[in-house]
Structures are given as C-alpha cells and as structure tokens.
C-alpha cells in the first residue's frame, strides 16, 4: 500500500495595505498685536483697582443703554408722520399740543364736532372752549371730517367721554385702519353696560384685534398745557406698542412709564 504525502501548506493572512497616520502641521503662533488704545488696562493688585474696573465697565454699559434708547426714540418720531386726536375737550387738546411740540413736521389732526372750535383752532390757534389763553402749535389742525382726520394716521388718541364713545366709534368705524393703534384717554365705565374702554373700542369698531393702549395717571390737562412736571402710565398687552407710545410722548416735562395690561 502506497501512501501519498501532501506537502504541508501554510495559510497566510489576507493582505492589508499599510496604514498611514496624518499629522497636522503645527499652527503658526499669532504675532502679538498692538494694544487696544480704547481698552483701559489696570493692575489687579487690590480691591481698589478692581472697583475702578467695575465702575468703568458700568459707565460704558450705561452710555450704551442711553444711546440705544435715544436711537429708538428718534426712530419712532421719524417714522411717525401723522396722529389723530378724537375729541376736542380739555385733555384731548392738551395731548394734541404736547405731541405736536415733539416734532415740528408732525401733522396732528383733532377730530371735533363743534364747527366754532374747529375754526378757532385753525384760524387763531386757540381752543375757544378749552384753554382760550393757551396758544396751540401751528401743526395742530382741527377738522370735522372723520375720513380726512383718520387717513394715513400712525396713532389715534381717543379722548371722547366714555358715555358717548360707543356711538361715536360706530360712526367712524369704516374709516379706521384695522392696524391703527388706539390710545384711550377716556376714564370710567359705560353706565348702561358697565363696560370699560377696552371692551367698547373693539366692539364698536367690529375688530377684536384692534391695537389698544390705555394712557392714564395722576395728571391734569392744565399741567400739560403749562409744561409742568407730569407723569402718565401706558398699559397694553402689546409691550411693543406701549414702548412706541412711551417714546412718542416722553419729554423733559412728561414722564411715561409702561405697564403690561
């Protein structure tokens, strides 16, 4: 019997290509730049120096905040070309006179019912019924035409007494832009329904989303006319509109605070 011996075979592992490792080139070290001349560097050797740095940083923050507020105020005044005041009573007249002094090119329309009051404002620059001794700015214009008064207005100040507001607003509803912010100066409740102005305005205008702001506070119309220090509060669910009204009206003699209504 013959035995055939097969030569031994050795199994080699499958060929795998050599692995290469990549090395990133060393980054160049940045060259030292010249020191910022606007940055004040103080040694931190003690609490006195640290307090000085905090003081300088705080002053810089305050300056930046005031600059930002100043630009915002300027933007609101620049964008506002026309406002309308509904009503020719004492407070409506005072508000019209005050806002008119904020910008000489601002058109301030007063919508009044009495033709005699309308003529006295346009021809003599006085409200013959209220404040006949006070001269109104030249950019205060009175009219009895609701359509002309409301056309192109950026803000609307409502100064009609509460008891007559519902019927008055229903008459002019067709001329009111749905996005026109209403700033209510009227105080009190409607006697028959006990509704507030926040309920009267949207229902009378048939627009539940009419922008609405309340302007109120411990102030008198005579104080505004005499430019005495006065304070008012602007309240609204829309903080942006409240801030715009604040920036539109705030002045050296009138302080406007905002509140979330």
UniProtKB/TrEMBL annotation:
What is the superkingdom listed in this entry's lineage? Eukaryota
Family matches, as InterPro entries: G3P_DH_NAD-dep (IPR006168), G3P_DH_NAD-dep_N (IPR011128), NAD(P)-bd_dom_sf (IPR036291)
- What is catalysed by this protein? sn-glycerol 3-phosphate + NAD(+) = dihydroxyacetone phosphate + NADH + H(+)
Q: Under which name does UniProt file this protein?
A: Glycerol-3-phosphate dehydrogenase NAD-dependent N-terminal domain-containing protein
Keyword list (alphabetical) reads: NAD, Oxidoreductase
Name the Gene Ontology molecular function terms of this record.
glycerol-3-phosphate dehydrogenase (NAD+) activity; NAD binding
Q: Residues of the signal sequence?
A: none
Q: Which residues cross the membrane?
A: none
Which Pfam families does this chain map to? Answer: NAD_Gly3P_dh_N (PF01210)
BP GO terms, sorted: glycerol-3-phosphate catabolic process; glycerolipid biosynthetic process; systemic acquired resistance
Name of encoding gene: LOC101253092
Do you know which PANTHER family this protein is assigned to? GLYCEROL-3-PHOSPHATE DEHYDROGENASE, GLYCEROL-3-PHOSPHATE DEHYDROGENASE [NAD(+)] 2, CHLOROPLASTIC
Q: What's the family?
A: Belongs to the NAD-dependent glycerol-3-phosphate dehydrogenase family.
Q: Which residues form the Glycerol-3-phosphate dehydrogenase NAD-dependent N-terminal domain?
A: 82-241
